[in-house]
Amino acid sequence: MSSGPVVTRFAPSPTGYLHIGGARTALFNWLFARGRGGRFLLRIEDTDHTRSTPQATQAILDGLAWLGLEHDGDVVSQASRAERHAEVAQALLERGAAYKCFSTQEEIETFRESARAEGRSTLFTSPWRDADPAAHPDAPYVIRLKTPTEGETVIRDQVQGDVRIGNDQLDDMVLLRSDGTPVYMLAVVVDDHDMGVTHVVRGDDHLNNAARQMGIYQAMGWEVPVWAHIPLIHGPDGKKLSKRHGALGVDEYQKMGYPSPGMRNYLARLGWSHGDDEFFSDAQAQEWFDLSGIGRSPARFDFKKLDNLSGQHIAVMDDAALLHEIEAFLAATGQLPLTDAQKDGLSRAMYCLKDRAKTYPELLEKAHFVLESSPVEPDEKAAKALDAVSRGILEALTPQLQNASWTRDDLEAVMNRFAEDRGTKFGKLAGPLRAALAGRMVTPSVFDMMLVLGRDESLARLSRAATGAEA
């Protein structure tokens, strides 16, 4: 284990969007490095030329940017390092830790068929492992790692504990294909070593890979990183997260209008815990996060918890930061940008919009009263609330508001007195007032809307609603 600065990495394959599971892996690596003054690196594992695309790479970069997981240094392309990977394979060959294998695919398949028929292990045992180089034919070959045939490999994992794998369960892994291209398992080790990665935090579907990769580290005399293999994310039903559970890509959560701080908080809590703390800031997460807090069981994705945390983060977010995030949400969903007047109105209204919105669409729906220009067009429910009786109430109320000082206390006093004179309660007036001021029935309080809109605009809207005027 390295005593120097912590270096972690996130190494996705660019074959599609940034998966929510990958985003959590990136977050854990980011938190672990940032909390220790270390470095968080990004490597794109683009060696699969048929499936890797520039668009997918960009989708990963965009997803990380939205989540606020900034990486250190340049993005490393694994494909661009193929020469270096091949160089290490040659070095292992020269050390006697690897060998040239001339067995053909047909010979390997024949070996496996015989092994299956005889009930033996189908792990391929190459006849070239200890062959005299003088006997080597002039034919294509792969380079294989010489794996110890006895004893065991112990993965000392910070999440899974010590995992022991008998070396007789490991074959002589191919390092370099017959066309001279390196395999993924070699490339990962070389890149992690060259990038100075001290801690490999990744999904537990890579746990068995660690045993095979350790063979390369040890054969090269390199320091083995600290392993931490984290359980995968399951759906609410306990099955592996898939399309039927809902959104899988980080971009989908941005388009649903979740705030990035809420998403970071929720993903951090998905499989990691710090006592009973549910809601926390980035600074707290970086200070608290450690590998020992990661559970061994798969975490279950829960939209209700995500909604709850998102709402809490929206409520405490700085107004300017919130406005910036809302503008990014509108851009990501292809909606029209806010005008200067709408930004101004939204900023003034933010104090009465933040508390109960779990997502940006919810907040924007409640902000309808200040985002829409006059005349406000009522939706179906609001139109029903503006019946003849309600319009009569608004017509009688509006003149009494003309001389109000337009403070909350004074507006409340006028409204309550009006209701009392009519033998009713203010609650009965709220529906028509919401409909008149916002054209909606789900809004901030009537008083907040009136204060944000101001005297002239509020009275104009009430008058229009009272008379049923269109303009």
From TrEMBL:
Binding site for ATP: K243
Key words of the record: Aminoacyl-tRNA synthetase, ATP-binding, Cytoplasm, Ligase, Nucleotide-binding, Protein biosynthesis
Signal peptide: none
EC numbers on record: 6.1.1.17
Chief localization: cytoplasm
Domain Glutamyl/glutaminyl-tRNA synthetase class Ib catalytic: 6-307
'HIGH' region, short sequence motif: residues: 12-22
Aminoacyl-tRNA synthetase class I anticodon-binding domain mapped to chain residues: 330-465
Annotated localization: Cytoplasm
Superkingdom of the organism of origin: Bacteria
Coiled coil: none
Entries under NCBIfam families matching the protein: gltX_bact
Function comment: Catalyzes the attachment of glutamate to tRNA(Glu) in a two-step reaction: glutamate is first activated by ATP to form Glu-AMP and then transferred to the acceptor end of tRNA(Glu).
Similarity section: Belongs to the class-I aminoacyl-tRNA synthetase family. Glutamate--tRNA ligase type 1 subfamily.
Protein name as annotated: Glutamate--tRNA ligase
Originating organism: Citreimonas salinaria
